[in-house]
Each structure stands twice: as structure tokens, then as C-alpha cells.
Amino acid sequence: MWLRVILAVIAGGLAPLALAPFDYWYLAPVSAALLFILLHESSFRGAALIGWCYGLGLYGVGVSWVFVSIHEHGNAPVWLATLLTAVFVAAMALFVLVQTWLYRRFFYSGLGFIAVWVAFEWLRSWLFTGFPWLYMGYALTDTPLSVYAPFGGVWLLSLYTVALGIAALGILRCYRRPLPALALIVMFSAPGCCWIKCRRTGPPRAASLKFIWPRPVFPSS
After folding, report:
1. pLDDT tens-digit profile of 106-116?
2. Of residues 148 and 56, which shows the higher confidence score?
3. pLDDT for the residue 174
4. 13, 61, 80, 166 from 127: Cα distances, Å
5. What is the SS3 assignment for 67?
6. Does the reported pTM lie above 0.85?
């Protein structure tokens, strides 16, 4: 169990590296897939502990700017800024604790994992005034999958990010059944084809219009 706890912290710490300024976008689905694996066949209490440790890694790496804000801009001493940041990280990790417990208790499937993940990102956007940072969907803003952003915003991109990690695990498991694997590959490669086509053709040009303004004619005398 302790090995899972340590790996959960590491998996959570990988997620912020997928966002700016690092932009290793592929670490986002890897992070989600690792959490999915760690929750496999875990107890309800174990799933909650794994989720909380994942949240510690996620927010411990991703909200270092909170320490900077408190210490440098708030003129707080280092020990107080460290303490307040640690309390904030531990509190935010409770969101992931509840998320993984609910998944393990009521939605124990790949689709359930994806749905609960997106639902809690949405919940975190407004509950207690909201904390709209560290969404998985932000990792895809500079990738071909960003073509879906106008249809569902960051929530749809988060869905695709987590689904990409789960789909990768599914492909590894069903390599002897080519049709499901092929369907997953087509689903995730189609946006890339559209993105490449749009980059080649460019946006449609608006038709130019010509206006002729009448010039008034005044008599010379």
C-alpha cells in the first residue's frame, strides 16, 4: 500500500509538468492513467488515501506560486508562508480524495473514472468561489485536440486528456482484438487530421466588397 501511496504522489506531480511553462502535454494522460492503475482493486479507504496523495503531488508541484504570493507580496515570513501553503495544498487535495472514493465506490469503470474526473474539475471551478487552475484540458491547448475547445471548452479537453490515458491502457490490453483498438486510434487521430488540414488551407478568406460613394456635383456659378 505504501508503494501505491508514493507512486500516487509522483503521478500527481507529473500533471503540472504537462502545463505551461513546461508543456510536456503527454504527461497529463500518463498521470491520469497512473492514478487509474493505482486505484485498481484498492479498498474504499485505500482509494481515498491514494487520491489524497495524488492531490498532494498535483497541488504541491502546481501551486508553488501561492508561496511566492504569500511570502514576497504578502511580506509573510518563510515559515508562515510554508505553513499556509502546505495547509492549502492539503485542503485542495481533499477534492481528489472525494473524487477517487466516489469513483471506487459507485463508478468503478473506465468511463466512470473519466466522468467523475471531469465532474470534479467542473465542481472545483465554482465551489468555495472556485479554483480554476491545473485542469488537465489545458495541456491540450497547443495540440491537434484543441480543435474541440470551441465545442466544450476546457471540460471537453479534460475529458479527452483523461480518456486518452485510459484509451492507451485499453489499447495495451486489447492488442489481440484489433477492432476496439482501431476504433480508439481513429477517434483520437481524427482531430489531428482536421488540425493539419486547417493549417495547410488556412482560414477562409472573406470576399472583398467595393463601395462607390456618390460625389455631389455643385454648380460652378
Report:
1. 999 999 999 99
2. 56
3. 61
4. 23, 22, 26, 27
5. helix
6. no
Asked if 7 and 53 count as a contact pair (C-beta separation under 8 A), the reply is no
Note whether 141 and 150 are within 8 A (CB). Answer: no
From CA 64, how far away is CA 112, in angstroms rounded?
31
Asked whether the beta carbons of 159 and 145 are under 8 A apart, the reply is no
DSSP character string of 92-159? HHHHHHHHHHHHHHH--SHHHHHHHHHHHHHHHTTGGG----S-GGGGGTTSGGGGGHHHHHHHHHHH
- Measured CA to CA, the distance from residue 204 to residue 217 in angstroms comes to 40
Q: Cα 100 from chain centroid?
A: 16
Q: Hey, is 45 helix, strand or coil?
A: helix
- Residue 14: count of CB within 10 angstroms of its CB: 19
Instruction: Enter the DSSP assignment of 39.
Output: T
**Is 128 within 8 Å of 56 (Cβ atoms)?**
no
Of 207, 170, 33, whose CA–CA distance to 113 is shortest?
Answer: 33
DSSP state, residue 71: I
User: Is the pLDDT score of 200 beyond 50?
Assistant: no
Report the half-sphere exposure of 114 (CA within 13 A, side-chain side): 17
